[in-house]
């Protein structure tokens, strides 16, 4: 059985996803997300003995392409989608976080 | 497999500055850019130094609706690396590593997480030390950020500029076990790994262009302890020199901390080459919470026999195997000689081992072949790699049979490397006609007549004087005489 998700856990997940939510929203989502998890728990009640494990919905393996260059986008076109650009590069605000 | 038991560590090195009484334990993570024509998941060209943002497309820019398709060549090179490092090459899957940093426009990096393609291998260093390889997995490289304004460092910059040419370039990350002890071994490990990556065709090995990037996990523990200390990951190591210095400084910092009653905090630290010290990069505890989940757009990668065979076709011998090949040649013939293992490492390092092996195959003396290759030919490695093995073997033959003195042989070899040709012909041209025994006898008699006091001492059994007399003969013959023949001639006159 899944445990009830705490408001703190919801706030942590929101922080990792860079979502700003209020304490009330945390409580609301904790309830709603717990209900969803409980629903998904039903899968665990299935008897999966004899069902091979899989990591993908498709039965495909080794989908590969040849190492052959294809045309890239024009730089002007690439940068046209950016809010700001400078010197042919994307300009991003000062990075307050840390490098991964 | 290797690495699962005791660390392959040699005894700790005493005397590294500021760490007396402690052992430095290092694990290394090496990111290797694969030498493919295109990126890992799209057909954009994989090239260093192009005009910014000209090698990008919807896939590597993470535009909506784009889908990644795995590059076959990147997979083959990853398998070659796995094989070269004696890994188990196994079925694998891809995950998304989620983080918010503008070097990846998707806000995640596609990597291999709990099911990497290569696991449990080892790398054998020239001294024989085996460093365990935990895993070598496939992932994509990130874009390049340049911090502008302020001090040019990330935290005080006004803003940053991003070039996505490198985003999506195929990488293999090779993670060692904590089997490395100290800075010197760490340098030897990276240097040998680089040689393996280049030999396997996976990488151009250019550290200065970022083709190989090294992070070091450093910890210290009291000598004799077998418990691992808390480690710090040191980043920004762009050369073997930086790697060595950073490890020494980080270890000294940790020892000073422990000695003063503090404790090491597990964190990532940035190496500052100019200041010669490391500094903390992260503060947030959840920085490592990457919320990995299975990449839904990529199916499993299963290296079946067909794929592995195709990938490893034409794999050359790796440096460790080549060293063994040359060492066996010399060892079989002579039972090993002092300094031979350094000479073996040198000829393999410079790619002259094929020359030595071929010359010995043609009947050349193994020890002399190794010595001339490691000492003289090694001075001009490019020419030496092109040297005809038959000519090399002929030259060695002339020296062994005493037709050329060793001084003459070295001169002929230099000429051979510069202009090519036949050793005997070169020797003739240089006037290195073998001294006739009559001519030599005359010279020896002259030398004895000119040095009566020394001759008396020689007759009295003072063997040191023999060298002086031999030297005089060599001088008189301008190096054309063979040292051994002269010694024999002197002995013969002793009566």
Basic shape of chain A: flat
Query: How helix-rich are the residues of chain A, as a percent range?
Result: 25-40%
Tell me the span between the first and last alpha carbons of chain B: 66 Å
Q: Termini separation of chain A (Å)?
A: 35 Å
| Widest beta sheet: strand line-up of chain A | 2-3
- Computed CA radius of gyration of chain A, to the nearest angstrom: 22 Å
The major pleated sheet of chain A works out as:
2 strands, antiparallel
User: How many helices of chain B does DSSP assign?
Assistant: 16
Q: What amount of the residues of chain B lies in strands?
A: 15-25%
- SSE succession of chain A: HHEHEE
Provide the residue-averaged pLDDT of chain A.
88
The low-confidence runs of chain B, each spanning 5 or more residues with pLDDT under 50, are 1-15
- The helix tally of chain A amounts to 3
Q: What structural class do the secondary elements of chain A suggest?
A: alpha+beta
Kindly estimate the percentage of residues of chain A that lie in beta strands according to DSSP: 5-15%
**Unreliably modeled segments of chain A:** none
Task: Compute the CA-based radius of gyration of chain B.
Answer: 30 Å
